[in-house]
């Protein structure tokens, strides 16, 4: 029994999650260490904090979720497979958890979120845990953040029906884009790379994300 002393933030609780991610095929030690070190309980409502280190998605309000740790790990592993990206665009800040995991693995993150309450809360939480290389703005994610393009890596945490051309335009030569694509019934997690010969595409997994909503302007 682990009734006493094994709270929601304990190392043993986190270690169990890391062990599960290993069993599910996450091999990049940088990613596993980042997930071990990021306090996921900070990014969920207090009422759900006791479930923070379960390998499951959790609601964060406004019809959005904090992604399942396995999916965060899978996407992050694909994003940094070629080394440490200098400049990363994140589309869909959400709770800020994926942002926090990435923050220690890349030089700079430019993150966009279209829901102002989520953006403000994520910014506050990221500041509280010491993420100093994250820049967040309120914006429709399908347009990206052109001011800081091109990006070595782009990660999208909501699913459009197809890859937005504006994001492909902001991807640097040699860059990697990890994005879920599809409708409500089925989505595929894709890795798109910009190579000397053009864009390549690889299916990584079947996933279930909230839709990427495009504002009409």
Shape designation: globular
- Rounded to an integer, what's the Rg over CA atoms? 17 Å
Q: What distance separates the N and C termini?
A: 56 Å
Largest sheet: 7 strands, mixed
The number of helical segments is 6
Order of helices and strands: HHEEHEHEHEEHEEE
Instruction: Note the beta-strand portion.
Output: 25-35%
Helix % is 25-40%
| Widest sheet: strand ordering | 5-4-3-6-7-8-9
Structural class of the helix and strand makeup? alpha/beta
Indicate the low-confidence ranges by residue numbers.
1-7
Q: Whole-number average pLDDT? A: 89
Beta-strand segment tally: 9
Describe what you observe in this structure:
With 217 residues, the protein is an alpha/beta fold. It is built from six helices and nine strands; from the N terminus they run H-H-E-E-H-E-H-E-H-E-E-H-E-E-E. A seven-stranded mixed β-sheet has the order 5-4-3-6-7-8-9. Helix 1 packs antiparallel against helix 2 (29-37) and helix 2 (29-37) crosses helix 3. The protein starts with 10 loop residues before the first helix and ends in a 10-residue tail after the last strand.
């Amino acid at each position: 029994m682990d009734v006493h002393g094994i709270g929601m933030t304990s190392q043993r609780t986190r270690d169990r999650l890391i062990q599960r991610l290993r069993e599910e095929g996450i091999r990049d030690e940088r990613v596993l260490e980042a997930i071990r070190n990021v306090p996921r309980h900070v990014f969920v409502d207090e009422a759900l904090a006791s479930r923070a280190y379960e390998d499951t998605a959790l609601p964060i309000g406004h019809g959005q979720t904090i992604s399942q740790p396995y999916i965060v790990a899978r996407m992050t592993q694909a994003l940094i497979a070629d080394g440490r990206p200098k400049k990363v665009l994140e589309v869909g800040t959400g709770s800020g958890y994926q942002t926090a995991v990435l923050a220690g693995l890349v030089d700079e993150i430019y993150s966009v979120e279209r829901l102002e309450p989520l953006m403000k809360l994520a910014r506050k939480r990221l500041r509280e845990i010491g993420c100093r290389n994250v820049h967040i703005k309120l914006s429709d994610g399908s347009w990206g953040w052109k001011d800081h393009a091109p990006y070595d890596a782009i990660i999208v945490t909501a699913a459009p029906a197809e890859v937005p051309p504006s994001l492909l335009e902001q991807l640097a030569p040699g860059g990697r884009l990890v994005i879920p694509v599809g409708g409500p019934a089925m989505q595929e997690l894709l890795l798109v790379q910009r190579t000397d010969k053009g864009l390549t595409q690889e299916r990584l997994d079947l996933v279930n994300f909230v839709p990427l909503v495009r504002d009409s302007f």
